[in-house]
Design a protein that fits this description.
Elements: H1 2-10, H2 14-19, E1 23-28, H3 33-44, E2 50-52, H4 60-69, E3 74-78, H5 84-91, E4 95-98, H6 106-109, H7 112-122, E5 128-132, H8 136-142, E6 147-152, E7 172-173, E8 178-179, E9 191-194, E10 197-200, E11 204-206, H9 214-229, H10 234-239, E12 253-256, E13 259-265, H11 269-280, E14 286-289, E15 316-319, H12 323-332, E16 339-340, H13 344-349, E17 354-360, H14 362-371
Parallel strand pairs: 1-3, 1-4, 2-3, 4-5, 5-6, 6-9, 13-17, 14-15, 14-17, 15-16
Antiparallel strand pairs: 7-8, 9-10, 10-11, 12-13
The chain binds zinc ion.
């Protein structure tokens, strides 16, 4: 990061120079950026060398460092949603992959509508948006680009998609459709997810994704479609994802005194809904690790928008620097015998040996990895 900051300070034009004559593809959204950009990189490497900010450093210093680190003809850049306008302007990227927009780090990003509005303005200079047609904020933004490839991958978290980003009226939503009286409505997708298949007008591609959960199938679909629009064969692209089973420590299984802890990152309301959907499909004991430092966002009030009732019927232990907030929240949803531990190792010792799911927000996730001996 320091190298990137120094380069930007000494040569503010560096990103523009380093991106010149390269195919730059941006990947942005509230959730799934790191996974989707990693997937897209794998898909595109079936055709050519690709540079990628694989460390997840997705603000200017990390972006310029990634551009400076290689000279591949294609560069995939995971981009923080607040920095998408800057990155577009600097790199003159022709393609952006737009995943979803929902609340995250409330003290920094403010309202979702403000982010959608800044995207809409910035994307007017973009050639091609590969965009999730099930998220009204993404659709409104992507319509500013010259052309769009719509992908129907769904959104599980709809509470930030209730109001039309164009006119402020209510967006009426059914299971598979949404529309507003102003005329903004769900575009017909060029590609859509059907189970684990990605279905286009003339192709059906089987996605065999090593990472668990519906959100990662959606990430894979977005990546394969984007790669296809950039010239990759869809099946080759899909096949390149099969062996990716962990990204930046997410879903790693780490051992602690006979407990096999699967680490699941959940950064914000939409992420927690996905994570709880994933763990509630099983019966493993659960450790919830919750902090509110730095990138976690200091305002955890959104915990009250996440339904926790689905995780009953198993031991639950809470830890992290804001564990009290989590315990109170769980009590409100009727989980009364939740226990509390000073750290993840102690929490694991309080549940029976065997598989355990550890769901953590960002700071707590990094703490858990350090505790369990895999410092990042
Ligand atoms: Zn409207």
């Amino acid at each position: 990061m320091i190298g990137g900051r120094v380069l930007l300070a000494l040569a503010p034009q560096a990103p523009r120079e380093l991106a010149r004559n390269r195919e730059v593809v941006l990947v942005s959204g509230t959730n799934g950026k790191t996974t989707t950009s990693t997937y897209l990189t794998a898909c595109l490497r079936t055709r050519s060398p690709v540079d990628h900010n694989a460390d997840g450093a997705n603000t200017p210093a990390g972006i310029v460092r990634a551009l400076a680190a290689g000279s591949a003809p294609v560069v995939v850049l995971e981009t923080d949603e607040g920095w998408l306008p800057w990155t577009l302007e600097q790199t003159r990227a022709r393609t952006a992959v737009l995943l979803n927009l929902s609340r995250d780090q409330l003290h920094r990003h403010h309202e979702v509508a403000a982010v959608a509005s800044s995207w809409h303005s910035a994307l007017s200079g973009l050639d091609h948006a590969v965009a999730n047609c099930d998220d009204p904020d993404v659709v409104f933004s992507a319509l500013a680009a010259s052309r769009q490839t719509w992908v129907g991958v769904g959104i599980r978290w709809t509470q930030d998609a209730l109001v039309c980003p164009r006119c402020g009226q209510e967006c009426r939503r059914t299971a598979e459709d949404w529309r507003c009286t102003c005329g903004l409505r769900r575009p017909t997708p060029h590609w859509r997810l059907e189970g684990a298949d990605l279905v286009g007008d003339t192709r059906r591609v089987a996605l065999q994704v090593g990472l668990p959960g519906q959100a990662n199938l959606a990430n894979a679909a977005m990546a394969v479609v984007a790669a296809t629009t950039l010239g990759a064969d869809p099946q080759d692209a899909a096949d390149s994802l099969r062996d990716i089973v962990s990204i930046a420590g997410r879903y790693d299984v780490l051992e602690s005194a006979g407990r096999r802890a699967r680490l699941i990152l959940a950064k914000n309301p939409a992420g927690w809904v996905e994570a709880l959907g994933l763990v509630s499909a099983g019966t493993a004991p659960l450790v919830l690790a919750f902090s509110s430092d730095g990138v976690d966002g200091r305002d955890p009030s959104w915990l009250y928008d996440v339904p926790f009732a689905g995780i009953t019927g198993r031991p639950v232990v809470v830890t992290g620097r804001r564990a009290t907030d989590m315990v109170v929240r769980l009590q409100m949803d009727g989980l009364s015998d939740v226990r509390r531990a000073p750290n993840v190792v102690s929490a694991l010792a309080m549940v029976p040996p065997g598989p355990v799911d550890v769901v953590a927000n960002y700071g707590a996730f990094q703490d858990a990895r350090r505790e369990l001996g895999h410092a990042s």
